[in-house]
Each structure stands twice: as C-alpha cells, then as structure tokens.
Amino acid sequence: MVVLASYLMASPGFAVTGTDPLPALDPVGLLSTVPAPALSSAREWERHVVEVETGLPPDAAPGTTPRPEYDLATRSLAEREAAKAVELKVGIRTVQGRRYAYARQGLWGLVDQRTARLADTTGRADARLVAAVEEVVAEQTTASTGTRSRLIRRVIKRVEETYGPGMVPIPSRSTLYKLVDRLSSGRHTFGSAITRRQTANRPQKTFTPTFAARPGEQVQVDSTPLDVMVVLDSGQTAHADLTIAVDVATRTICAAVLRPVGTKAVDASLLLAKMLVPEPMRPGWAASLRMSSSRIPHQRLLNVDARMHQSAAKPVIVPDMIVIDGGKVFLSDTFTRACDRLGISVQRARPRTPTDKAIVEATFSAINTLFCQHLAGYTGRNVSRRGERVEDHAVWAIPELQELLDEWVVAGWQARPHDALRDPYRPKKAMSPNDKYTSLVAACGYLPLVLRGEDYLELLPVAWRAINDYGIRISYRTYDSPDLGPLRRQHSGHNAKRGLWEVHYDPYDLSQVFVRTPRGWVTVPWMHLPLVNAPFADFTWQHARRLATEAGLDDTNEAAVARVLDALLTRAEHGPDTRTTKVADRTRAGAASHRPPSPRAAPEPAPPDPSTEPAEVIPFGVFDAHAEAERWL
To answer: What would the pLDDT profile of 481-508 be if each residue is shown by its tens digit?
Structure first.
C-alpha cells in the first residue's frame, strides 16, 4: 500500500516500534522554582546517570576514554550500575530508580520532589477552622468594611458555637492573621466595599466582548445619578439623573437626558424618541459642529432624510435591539410598549451582572472623567473624593447643563478617538464614533424613522378610565371637556378592558390628559386648573395630598388639595420647609427640561367654552413653565 506520509502519521493506530522513545524535555519553568541546592544535587545525579548509560559524563571533553568500570565494551549495564552504587555508597536500586526517572522525566525526575511541593495556603490549621474563616470572609461581601480583628473574633465565636469551646485548636494570633490574609486574598475583604462587591459579582466564565457589526444592532441603555450638583429655581442644590443610550457598533451616545432625581418611565420612552430625531444646531454653537462640516456623508443622508439639513454632527441611529437592566423605569409598561410600537426588541441583562451592558457602564465613567469633573459643583464619585461645600460652587441649572452636555457630546465625544474603535485595515489607529459610523453606514445603509405628534402621545403612560357625567377621574383629579359629551357613559369597545377608555397623561404636566377616541385624540384639561398658579407634576400632587392630610383636610377632595397645591407652589420660594421647596424645585426643573423630541407639536386642543370653563387651556407641547409662572406671579 502506498499512502501519504502525513496521512499515515496522523492515523490514531500508527506508532514507531523497535526504537527508544524520545527523551522528555526539561520543564524549564518548574526547574526555576526549585531551590538552588536541590537543583545542584539533581544536576550532579544527572552526570552519574549519563555516565552509567553512555560510559562518559555529559561534560567530558572529545577523545576522553571511559573509566574501566564504565566501559561499554567490557562492562554490562548491571555491572556499571553496581560500580556506580559502590562509588556513591548507595544501594543499586537507588541508582536504577534514578536512571528510570531520568529516562521518563529528564532532569525534573532527579529533583527531590519534597522541595518542589506546592505550599499549602492554610498550613497546619484545622479544617474546621479553615471552613469557618471562609464562611465569615464570604459574609463580608455585602457588609461594611471592618478590620481583621473583627473577622477573627467572629470566626472564633462561630467555631465555638458550632463545635463547642475548646474542641477546635485555635493557633496563635499572628498565625490567625496570616491565615485570614491568605483566605481573603483577591477579595478586597478589608478594602473598598464597592470594589469588594464588584469583584464578588464578577462572573467566573470567560469574558466575551460585546460585538455589533452595524449601527443600531445593539444599543445599551442605563440611568445613573450625575456626579454634579445642579441649582434648582429656588436656589436649592440637588443631584440630577442622567439616562443615556450608547450604540455598541460605533460607541455613539445616541441620546442623553437629564432629569431631577427620580427618573420616570416616560423619561426612558422619550429617550427613544430623541434617538430618532437629528440633533439640531443650537444658537451659539460653532459652525464646525454641523453635520455638513464633518466626515459623516451629510449630502447622501440628506437625500434620504430631509431633517438632516440643519443637524449637528451626530448620527441618527435606529436601534434594532436595546439592552436594559432590571430597573423599574425600563421594565415598565410605558417603556416596553414604546419599544414594541417602534419595532425595537428588548433584551434584559442578567440580574446583578453589569458586564452584560459593560459598554454603557464604561461610558458613564468616561462622562465623569471627560465632562463632569470640569464642571462647577462636581462632587466626585464618592464621599471620600468630595471637596468642601461643593453645593456652594454649583451654578448650573438642569436646562443649562443639558445644553452643555448636548454640545459636549457633539463637539467632544463624537469627534474623540475611541480605543475600542479600529479600522481592520489600520488596526493601530483609533477611530472616533463619527468616523466609525461613516464607514459602517456606507455598508449597512440608513433607514429613517420619522415620529409624528401622535407618536409622542403614544409614548406617554396610559391609564384606563371610564368617562362619566362629571368627566374622568385619575388619582382624585377630575378632567372634563365639552368634547367628551357624546362619549359619556359609553362603552369604548375594548371588552378586555371592560369598556374603559384609553387615557394618556404626562407625569411632569398633569394639567391635561389625552383620550383616544374613534375620531382621534381629545385633549381634556383639569377642571381645577384655575386654582393652581404654576405647573405641577405627579410627585407634586402626591406631596400636596400629604400636606392636606397633615392639615386635617380630606386628601380625596380635589378642590381642597388644589388649594393646598397652590399654596405649596406659591410659598416654595420663601417657605422654611426644605422638603416642600425641593418638591417644587423638582416640578419646575422637570417641566422646564421636558420637551417633545418630535419636530412637530402634538395636536392643539379644542378651545374651551368661556361660559363653562373660565381657565385658559394650555396647549400640549408648547407649554413654557418659566414664562407661565412669571405671568401668574
């Protein structure tokens, strides 16, 4: 049979017989861990073993003749082994054992294995004591950081409670400290609590980088408090929540929204809408920030989407899939319904596994480093990094800070080279998010998704209510309008909702609601709106109800609550109640920064009947909180 040599040698049943096996290679790494005396002794034994097998030591000069007792021509292997045993004053079996070990393992077989034994991290400590230390160390993951003496005390108490006093030998104090240090190595048991929890939460499996081949294939969304103190209308300082969406393929910050602390589901929904709208150029922005001045193919995109005409240099990315965590904001029906309507699939990260959305987590850290730390009122990421009286240096309001953030995203982040963005043909050169988008959009294309004014209403939270003779009741508030006349006491046609009507509301502006009818959307104002001299949000209404209860009033009487609400917003600027002031400030900040992302406003409500409704109905989408408050004051 004639076969290829490579095929023959690759066959599992092929073997070379009748020849000596190849000598084993010396494990250089293991030999470097052996103490010098033990390694020197092994090399000396190597000389003797080689002389027994070959007749000459390995360092013999050329032409050297073997000694008579090791001459291969006159002495057999057994005689040479016996001669070496007499020379070294050891047993013949010792020489044979060393020769066999050298044949199998080389020099490593001649090393005294006692010197190469791995060190035991627990020493001679009792196994029951070691188990107790491991249990207590594991319990420190979620506890406040303590000292080693506290942990040792808990270990001793645990051992005595489990096995009884004196049943488990306890070593000396210094030995206990060494044992604790060895068993807590790498866990940060006595260091930063944040690092300890992050280390314990780190998955044990192989880290797999998140990869996306086209813009929008995967977008990661998350929300976190911003490390900057902002100034509210009354001069009070507070933190703001930052919600961002980051595209994995290009590292583009698709949208970034600032809100007073307490992000709502409607904020996450409006973030989606903002992603789908081109970033407009603002007054005062440099001309270099225009998309037409960047490397993004502006003219080609303008032919597809006319909204790109006056847009800034930030791409519009329509997400295919959004990765969220377990926050209530993103698990709400409002957010999931908005994603479903826009054709976006939602993937939830595993509980307590931030590595599932590591890119957006790293982006928050980059925003703190590149943007937040340069702002007045920066607090640092924790108390240990905070300066003195930081709130005295806070100067930015939320709308102003939102403007700064939007400009920084366009001018700084989108044009800054990102280490994770590389060109396959130029792997040593980092690319910016805009450059990466330019290269990918040429291959993947761009399909715009334009929102209408009605789409903005679809993103608002929904409540199912009946339309009665007095109107619609939501959380002890009554909304009524002449347009509801033909719909009163009527079945909506939705049997699954028992005939109730679909009502959408804005948590930041409860002055009106929006009802879906067979004829379209109907805007319904709050009937007690003339009693309130400023806009109010959902949390403002709930706080006013608590104040009414404290004053001995009926918190279900909306007229009484409306008067309390009016007094609350009126005295917020001068009242001594810090909690009340903060609630009013959150209301104004939320209303001032709450704008529809769609370029088209929502449908205008029908004009009210002056004889039945003396209050002026505020059109949705064009309401200015600051101007309205000044007008009423």
So the answer is: 999 988 999 999 898 889 999 998 877 6
Contact between 414 and 433 under an 8 Å Cβ cutoff? The reply is yes
pLDDT digits (tens, 9 = 90+) for 276-311: 888 888 777 888 888 988 888 888 888 888 878 888
User: Could you give the C-alpha distances from 273 to 260, 293, 303, 595, in angstroms and in order?
Assistant: 19, 25, 22, 11
In order of 127, 241, 488, the CA distances from 165 in angstroms are 16, 53, 79
Q: What is the domain count for the chain?
A: 4
Distance of CA 466 to the CA centre of its chain: 42
Question: How many residues appear in the chain?
Answer: 633
Between CA 567 and CA 432 the distance in angstroms is 52
Q: Is residue 414 part of a domain?
A: yes
pLDDT (tens digit per residue) in 39-67? 999 999 999 999 999 999 888 888 889 99
| 236 and 309 share one domain | yes
Residues 485 and 500 occupy one common structural domain? yes
185 half-sphere exposure, CB direction, 13 A CA radius: 8
Query: Which pLDDT does position 234 carry in this prediction?
Result: 63
Same domain flag for 51 and 96 = yes
**Nearest to 310, CA basis, from 347, 343, 285:** 285
Estimate to the nearest angstrom the gap between the alpha carbon of 93 and the chain centroid.
Answer: 65
Helix axes 36-54, 92-105, angle to 10 degrees: 100
**227 plus 197 within the same structural domain:** no
Distance CA(95)–CA(49), nearest Å, equals: 8
Same domain, 104 and 140: no
Same domain, 308 and 359: yes
Residue 122 resides in a domain: no
> Which residue has 């044979």 as its token pair?
96
Tokens 């706080």 found at: 543
User: Which CATH number does the domain housing residue 242 bear?
Assistant: 3.30.420.10
Under 8 Å CB-to-CB from 226, ≥6 apart: which residues? 239, 240, 241, 242, 258, 372
Kindly give, in sequence order, each residue whose CB lies less than 8 Å from that of residue 140, ignoring residues fewer than 6 positions away: 146, 151, 187, 189, 196
**Whether 35 contacts 88, CB under 8 Å:** no
Q: How far is 538 from 118, CA to CA, in rounded Å? A: 65
Name the 3-class secondary structure at 531.
Answer: helix
Domain encompassing residue 53:
22-110
Report field, pTM of the whole predicted structure over 0.70:
no
Q: CA nearest 269: which of 52, 594, 502, 520?
A: 594
For residue 78, the surrounding DSSP H or E stretch is helix 77-88
